[in-house]
Design a protein that fits this description.
With about 280 residues, this protein is mainly α. The protein has one domain. It is built from ten helices and no strands. The longest helix is centred in the middle third of the chain and has 32 residues. It is found in: Membrane. It comes from Arthrobacter halodurans.
Length: about 280
């Protein structure tokens, strides 16, 4: 093995570790734990659980604890000697680091109250996570550890950021005074939720029913339903639309998982690993 290649891989692995660490520190600041303004209070409260009709309920954001724990574990796993020169991890590292930097950048932008820029950043983050999914699908899972830590974490990350992008965009449009071309709010929100469910179905088809992205997407949609019934920005029609969208994503993913025919044969070990990833 070329020593220079190994050195580059080691440097890239440590860069990912530092980027993930910075993202986690930024998250603590964004929570208000280290003196920053909590995200729900930043940007005039537009990103709070009651900021818009498409905002998830407060407890939905607890998923970040799972995602950050997974990212920390991923940063350690990809640094292991056995993973440093692995082609799958090698291809993921620049994108994983970019996702961590964008996540931290989003928190700082929101802290500054720049909602329009926050939409640009979160859309970029969503694009990076979509690219990561493509890379993960292009190469077989390297065992159960990678299936859970790598594929599972980035699947959850993608699914949740998909919902967060919808909520963030709604917050920016609401703060800008946008009125959906005169369409009633309930109708406009329901259309957006139907589109989100459709994207979830496409994602299920593309991944042959991987569970992690669907679970996070359905989680966010379900909490939008809760948020419209818990006494804040109430709307029974939106709650129904969000609940149905969540169910559609889960049922569609289960259907894709068990009904889509996969022609290639898997070795027993790989089958177990890919089952965990999905």
């Amino acid at each position: 093995m070329d020593p220079r290649h190994t050195t580059r891989d080691t440097a890239a692995a440590w860069a990912v570790m530092l980027a993930v660490g910075a993202s986690i520190v930024a998250a603590f600041i964004g929570s208000g734990a280290l003196g920053g303004t909590p995200i729900q209070n930043a940007a005039d409260g537009w990103l709070s659980a009651d900021g818009t009709p498409l905002a998830p309920g407060t407890r939905a954001f607890s998923i970040w604890s799972v995602i950050y724990t997974g990212l920390a574990a991923y940063a350690v796993v990809q640094l292991l000697p056995s993973r440093r020169t692995d082609e799958r991890h090698r291809s993921l590292r620049p994108w994983a680091a970019a996702s961590a930097v964008l996540n931290a950048g989003w928190i700082w932008v929101v802290q500054a109250g720049w909602l329009a820029l926050s939409v640009v950043v979160i859309v970029a983050l969503l694009a990076v996570l979509a690219r990561i999914l493509v890379l993960l699908m292009a190469r077989p899972v390297g065992g159960a550890l990678d299936a859970v830590v790598t594929d599972g974490t980035f699947g959850l990350y993608l699914g949740w950021v998909s919902v967060a992008t919808v909520a963030n965009t709604a917050a920016w449009l609401g703060a800008s005074g946008f009125r959906a071309f005169g369409v009633p709010v309930d109708t406009a929100a329901s259309i957006v939720l139907a589109v989100a469910a459709g994207i979830g179905l496409l994602l299920a088809l593309y991944t042959s029913g991987r569970f992690a992205p669907a679970a996070a997407l359905a989680w966010g949609l379900a909490w939008i339903a809760v948020g419209r019934l818990d006494g804040g920005t109430e709307s029974v029609p939106i709650a129904w639309a969000a609940g149905i969208a969540s169910a559609v994503v889960i049922l569609g993913t289960l259907a894709a998982r068990f009904l889509i025919h996969t022609p290639r044969r898997r070795s027993p070990g790989r089958g177990v690993a890919e089952g965990v990833a999905r």
